Amino acid sequence: xxxxxxxxxxxxxxxxxxxxxxxxxxxxxxxxxxxxxxxxxxxxxxxxxxxxxxxxxxxxxxxxxxxxxxxxxxxxxxxxxxxxxxxxxxxxxxxxxxxxxxxxxxxxxxxxxxxxxxxxxxxxxxxxxxxxxxxxxxxxxxxxxxxxxxxxxxxxxxxxxxxxxxxxxxxxxxxxxxxxxxxxxxxxxxxxxxxxxxxxxxxxxxxxxxxxxxxxxxxxxxxxxx
Length: 226
What we know:
3 helices
Protein backbone atom coordinates (compact mmCIF):
# COMPACT_ATOMS: atom_id res chain seq x y z
CA UNK A 1 0.00 0.00 0.00
CA UNK A 2 1.29 3.42 -0.97
CA UNK A 3 0.04 6.71 0.50
CA UNK A 4 0.07 10.06 -1.21
CA UNK A 5 0.63 13.45 0.45
CA UNK A 6 -3.06 13.69 1.55
CA UNK A 7 -2.92 10.37 3.37
CA UNK A 8 -5.25 8.81 0.87
CA UNK A 9 -4.52 5.30 0.03
CA UNK A 10 -3.64 4.58 -3.52
CA UNK A 11 -4.41 1.31 -5.14
CA UNK A 12 -1.65 -1.20 -4.73
CA UNK A 13 0.43 -2.11 -7.69
CA UNK A 14 2.93 -4.77 -8.30
CA UNK A 15 6.25 -4.49 -10.07
CA UNK A 16 7.25 -7.68 -11.66
CA UNK A 17 10.66 -8.08 -13.24
CA UNK A 18 11.03 -10.85 -15.68
CA UNK A 19 14.43 -11.77 -16.97
CA UNK A 20 15.11 -14.46 -19.40
CA UNK A 21 18.70 -15.60 -19.55
CA UNK A 22 19.77 -18.18 -22.01
CA UNK A 23 23.24 -19.59 -21.99
CA UNK A 24 24.45 -21.42 -25.01
CA UNK A 25 27.69 -22.14 -26.88
CA UNK A 26 28.75 -21.31 -30.42
CA UNK A 27 27.09 -23.14 -33.22
CA UNK A 28 29.19 -24.93 -35.82
CA UNK A 29 28.37 -22.22 -38.39
CA UNK A 30 29.51 -19.48 -36.02
CA UNK A 31 32.79 -21.27 -35.37
CA UNK A 32 33.37 -21.66 -39.10
CA UNK A 33 32.74 -17.94 -39.60
CA UNK A 34 35.27 -17.06 -36.86
CA UNK A 35 37.88 -19.37 -38.38
CA UNK A 36 37.33 -17.85 -41.82
CA UNK A 37 37.73 -14.34 -40.41
CA UNK A 38 40.97 -15.27 -38.65
CA UNK A 39 42.27 -16.80 -41.86
CA UNK A 40 41.32 -13.66 -43.79
CA UNK A 41 43.23 -11.48 -41.33
CA UNK A 42 46.27 -13.76 -41.52
CA UNK A 43 46.31 -13.62 -45.30
CA UNK A 44 45.88 -9.86 -45.53
CA UNK A 45 47.26 -8.26 -42.37
CA UNK A 46 50.52 -10.21 -42.00
CA UNK A 47 51.79 -9.51 -45.54
CA UNK A 48 50.96 -5.85 -45.03
CA UNK A 49 52.97 -5.84 -41.80
CA UNK A 50 55.91 -7.44 -43.62
CA UNK A 51 55.53 -4.88 -46.39
CA UNK A 52 55.68 -2.08 -43.81
CA UNK A 53 58.95 -3.54 -42.53
CA UNK A 54 60.34 -3.40 -46.05
CA UNK A 55 59.12 0.15 -46.43
CA UNK A 56 60.81 1.09 -43.16
CA UNK A 57 64.15 -0.25 -44.46
CA UNK A 58 63.70 1.68 -47.67
CA UNK A 59 62.76 4.85 -45.80
CA UNK A 60 65.84 4.41 -43.59
CA UNK A 61 68.30 4.40 -46.47
CA UNK A 62 66.47 7.21 -48.27
CA UNK A 63 66.53 9.39 -45.16
CA UNK A 64 70.23 8.78 -44.55
CA UNK A 65 71.08 9.47 -48.19
CA UNK A 66 69.09 12.70 -48.09
CA UNK A 67 70.82 13.92 -44.94
CA UNK A 68 74.20 12.91 -46.36
CA UNK A 69 73.65 14.81 -49.63
CA UNK A 70 72.55 17.88 -47.68
CA UNK A 71 75.73 17.71 -45.62
CA UNK A 72 77.88 17.52 -48.76
CA UNK A 73 76.21 20.67 -50.10
CA UNK A 74 76.57 22.51 -46.77
CA UNK A 75 80.30 21.77 -46.60
CA UNK A 76 80.85 23.09 -50.10
CA UNK A 77 78.71 26.17 -49.42
CA UNK A 78 80.75 26.97 -46.32
CA UNK A 79 83.99 26.52 -48.25
CA UNK A 80 82.72 28.93 -50.91
CA UNK A 81 81.55 31.47 -48.33
CA UNK A 82 85.02 31.42 -46.72
CA UNK A 83 86.66 32.21 -50.08
CA UNK A 84 87.84 28.68 -50.80
CA UNK A 85 90.56 28.23 -48.16
CA UNK A 86 93.59 26.00 -48.80
CA UNK A 87 96.16 24.56 -46.42
CA UNK A 88 99.94 25.03 -46.75
CA UNK A 89 100.06 22.13 -49.23
CA UNK A 90 97.50 23.85 -51.47
CA UNK A 91 94.77 21.34 -50.54
CA UNK A 92 91.21 22.60 -50.23
CA UNK A 93 89.83 22.35 -46.71
CA UNK A 94 87.26 23.88 -44.36
CA UNK A 95 86.38 23.62 -40.68
CA UNK A 96 82.91 22.16 -40.65
CA UNK A 97 81.09 21.97 -37.33
CA UNK A 98 84.42 22.01 -35.51
CA UNK A 99 86.07 19.34 -37.68
CA UNK A 100 88.68 20.03 -40.35
CA UNK A 101 87.63 18.27 -43.54
CA UNK A 102 89.52 18.06 -46.82
CA UNK A 103 87.94 18.62 -50.18
CA UNK A 104 88.42 17.85 -53.85
CA UNK A 105 90.46 20.08 -56.17
CA UNK A 106 89.36 20.86 -59.70
CA UNK A 107 90.61 18.63 -62.50
CA UNK A 108 88.95 18.80 -65.91
CA UNK A 109 91.21 16.17 -67.51
CA UNK A 110 89.63 13.20 -65.74
CA UNK A 111 86.45 11.28 -66.55
CA UNK A 112 84.28 12.38 -64.96
CA UNK A 113 85.86 15.74 -64.35
CA UNK A 114 86.58 16.49 -60.71
CA UNK A 115 84.75 19.53 -59.38
CA UNK A 116 86.26 21.37 -56.42
CA UNK A 117 84.96 21.62 -52.88
CA UNK A 118 83.52 18.16 -52.14
CA UNK A 119 84.45 16.32 -48.97
CA UNK A 120 86.87 13.39 -49.15
CA UNK A 121 87.73 12.86 -45.47
CA UNK A 122 89.55 14.27 -42.47
CA UNK A 123 93.10 13.43 -43.56
CA UNK A 124 95.07 15.67 -45.92
CA UNK A 125 96.63 12.55 -47.45
CA UNK A 126 93.24 11.23 -48.49
CA UNK A 127 91.40 12.28 -51.58
CA UNK A 128 90.87 11.50 -55.22
CA UNK A 129 93.23 14.04 -56.78
CA UNK A 130 96.65 12.86 -55.61
CA UNK A 131 95.66 10.22 -53.06
CA UNK A 132 93.37 7.22 -52.76
CA UNK A 133 90.26 7.04 -50.62
CA UNK A 134 89.85 4.05 -48.33
CA UNK A 135 86.75 2.69 -46.59
CA UNK A 136 88.02 4.44 -43.43
CA UNK A 137 87.95 7.75 -45.33
CA UNK A 138 84.34 7.01 -46.29
CA UNK A 139 83.58 6.50 -42.59
CA UNK A 140 85.27 9.83 -41.79
CA UNK A 141 83.04 11.53 -44.38
CA UNK A 142 79.96 9.86 -42.84
CA UNK A 143 80.81 10.94 -39.30
CA UNK A 144 81.73 14.49 -40.36
CA UNK A 145 78.53 15.19 -42.31
CA UNK A 146 75.83 13.62 -40.14
CA UNK A 147 74.64 14.71 -36.71
CA UNK A 148 74.77 11.75 -34.29
CA UNK A 149 74.97 9.23 -37.16
CA UNK A 150 74.28 5.50 -36.77
CA UNK A 151 77.37 3.47 -35.96
CA UNK A 152 79.23 2.25 -39.03
CA UNK A 153 82.05 -0.24 -39.71
CA UNK A 154 84.36 -1.02 -42.59
CA UNK A 155 84.42 -4.78 -42.05
CA UNK A 156 81.51 -7.20 -41.92
CA UNK A 157 83.18 -9.09 -39.06
CA UNK A 158 82.82 -5.97 -36.92
CA UNK A 159 79.10 -5.90 -37.71
CA UNK A 160 78.69 -9.53 -36.69
CA UNK A 161 80.52 -8.86 -33.44
CA UNK A 162 78.65 -5.69 -32.48
CA UNK A 163 74.86 -5.49 -32.72
CA UNK A 164 74.88 -1.70 -32.29
CA UNK A 165 76.57 -1.16 -35.66
CA UNK A 166 73.91 -0.43 -38.28
CA UNK A 167 75.86 0.37 -41.46
CA UNK A 168 78.75 -1.01 -43.51
CA UNK A 169 81.09 1.29 -45.44
CA UNK A 170 82.90 0.16 -48.58
CA UNK A 171 84.84 1.84 -51.37
CA UNK A 172 85.34 1.06 -55.04
CA UNK A 173 87.31 2.62 -57.89
CA UNK A 174 90.03 5.22 -57.74
CA UNK A 175 90.60 8.81 -58.74
CA UNK A 176 87.55 10.48 -60.26
CA UNK A 177 85.72 7.10 -60.33
CA UNK A 178 85.95 6.63 -56.55
CA UNK A 179 82.67 5.66 -54.91
CA UNK A 180 81.88 5.32 -51.21
CA UNK A 181 79.08 2.83 -50.48
CA UNK A 182 76.97 2.77 -47.34
CA UNK A 183 74.90 -0.40 -46.79
CA UNK A 184 72.10 -0.80 -44.26
CA UNK A 185 73.17 -3.85 -42.24
CA UNK A 186 69.69 -5.38 -41.94
CA UNK A 187 69.43 -5.71 -45.73
CA UNK A 188 72.66 -7.68 -46.20
CA UNK A 189 72.58 -11.40 -46.93
CA UNK A 190 73.35 -13.91 -44.16
CA UNK A 191 75.01 -17.31 -44.14
CA UNK A 192 73.75 -20.55 -42.59
CA UNK A 193 75.01 -19.39 -39.19
CA UNK A 194 72.97 -16.19 -39.44
CA UNK A 195 76.13 -14.13 -39.91
CA UNK A 196 76.12 -11.13 -42.24
CA UNK A 197 78.00 -11.53 -45.52
CA UNK A 198 80.00 -8.76 -47.19
CA UNK A 199 78.13 -7.64 -50.33
CA UNK A 200 79.61 -9.17 -53.47
CA UNK A 201 78.00 -6.53 -55.66
CA UNK A 202 78.12 -3.15 -53.98
CA UNK A 203 75.18 -1.76 -55.96
CA UNK A 204 73.23 -5.00 -56.39
CA UNK A 205 73.05 -6.39 -52.84
CA UNK A 206 70.99 -4.93 -50.00
CA UNK A 207 69.84 -1.34 -49.62
CA UNK A 208 72.57 1.25 -49.89
CA UNK A 209 73.62 4.57 -51.35
CA UNK A 210 76.83 5.69 -52.98
CA UNK A 211 78.74 8.96 -52.89
CA UNK A 212 81.04 10.09 -55.69
CA UNK A 213 83.33 12.89 -54.45
CA UNK A 214 84.26 13.94 -57.99
CA UNK A 215 80.83 15.49 -58.60
CA UNK A 216 78.94 15.06 -55.26
CA UNK A 217 76.56 12.50 -56.82
CA UNK A 218 74.54 10.49 -54.27
CA UNK A 219 72.69 7.45 -55.67
CA UNK A 220 70.30 5.16 -53.78
CA UNK A 221 70.10 1.40 -54.48
CA UNK A 222 67.06 -0.59 -53.25
CA UNK A 223 67.51 -4.35 -53.65
CA UNK A 224 65.69 -5.58 -50.52
CA UNK A 225 61.97 -4.87 -50.05
CA UNK A 226 61.36 -7.65 -47.50
